[in-house]
Design brief:
The chain is of the alpha/beta class. It is built from 16 helices and eleven strands. Helix 12 packs across helix 13.
């Protein structure tokens, strides 16, 4: 049972985390909030943005703020699976006999930065599949557990596609969030340049240990979800499938393949964390609406008509939220967040 003291400790810890990250990152509040929500909920994050907007710097800052072992893997076409997971090497024991010894790869850290993940070949990309979902690595038939907590924070560039390998649906589905990192505003750009003229050093300090992070996750898991809110979230997920009994007209017109059950799990897990960050003891419809964008945008596959009309996944999600809200006749569900209405087109909910 979550107590008021648990909520207070959770809020204090979050404030410390955000305050330290803000020492390294100018602006990008929604991006930072979304990444921290996913980490507390135990999910992986895909950060997509043009070069120079702070994706890699954010992940490095998170490694220091959470005081967890951190490894950066620069994905390139010549990277091999063994470079990620590790491999068995032949060593000699004290008697001079040869034997195999496992040499762990960089994936055996708590936070993994998979930089430019779409530049590696599919064979190397698939080396992360088991790690991201099951937190284990199997090499030559032997499975080894990864340290907890474990996160993969990947980055990719949306505009430069030469020499890249798009992530397959199975791997995209293993990311809890896909967060679009926008360009900074004019004032933020001025602050960034002013800061980096003084020093390029990253100064964020430890604000949370791995044990504290796991306790925050346990607290969030105990937050109740009303049956009506749970049903709304599941209907919203199912409504993205054009052949589902819950399918909306938008999905039938523009969607080829909808979101998987993992999307429903991610919506509820992340919504519990967001409720706590906002100081509430329960999940609200607004939490589901706000998180629908980072949870669903990479899980919806558009058909030819959507591509031809240049309809984005975020626009489709906005229309589905409206249709589902009217169908369920829920006043709260009928009112998408400010971001969904287009009043704020930057940050976590930015539209491409």
């Amino acid at each position: 049972m979550v107590t008021e003291q648990d909520i207070k400790e959770f809020s204090t810890q979050c404030n410390m985390i955000f305050a330290q990250i803000a020492r390294d990152i100018i602006g990008q509040e929604k991006v930072v909030q979304g990444t921290v929500i996913a980490m507390i909920a135990g999910g992986n994050v895909l950060l997509e943005g043009v070069p120079g907007v702070g994706k890699t710097r954010l992940v490095r800052s998170l490694g220091r703020v959470f005081d967890l072992p951190f490894a950066r893997i620069q994905f390139t076409p010549d990277l091999m699976p063994a470079d990620v997971t590790g491999t068995n090497i032949i060593v000699k024991d004290d008697d001079g006999n040869s034997q195999f010894s496992f040499q762990p790869g960089p994936v055996f850290n708590n936070i993994i930065l998979a930089d430019e993940i779409n530049r590696a070949t599919p064979k190397t990309q698939s080396a992360l599949l088991e790690a991201m979902q099951e937190h284990t690595v199997t090499v030559m038939g032997v499975s080894r557990k990864l340290p907890e907590p474990f996160f993969v924070l990947a980055t990719q560039n949306p505009i430069e596609q030469d020499g890249t390998y798009p992530l397959p649906e199975a791997q995209m589905d293993r990311f809890m969030f896909k967060i679009l990192v926008p360009n900074p505003s004019l004032n933020e750009l001025m602050d960034i340049v002013t800061l980096t003229q003084k020093t390029m050093a990253e100064v964020a300090e430890k604000a949370c240990t791995g044990e504290q992070l796991l306790r925050m996750r346990e607290t969030a898991n105990q937050i109740p979800v009303a049956q009506e809110v749970l049903r709304y979230a599941m209907v919203l997920t199912s409504a993205t499938h054009p052949d589902s009994e819950c399918a909306t007209e938008t999905a039938k017109k523009y969607v080829r393949v909808g979101a998987s059950p993992r999307a429903g799990q991610a919506l509820i897990s992340a919504a519990k964390v967001m409720a706590l960050i906002k100081g509430r003891f329960n999940v609200a419809y607004s939490d589901i609406n706000e998180l629908a964008y980072p949870v669903l945008r990479h899980r919806i596959k558009l058909n030819f008509e959507a591509v031809a009309e240049r309809v984005t996944p975020d626009e489709i999600i906005t229309m589905i939220i409206g249709e589902v809200g009217k169908r369920m006749k829920s006043p709260a569900a009928e009112e998408p967040s400010d971001e969904a209405d287009g009043k704020k087109k930057r940050g976590l909910f930015a539209k491409k």
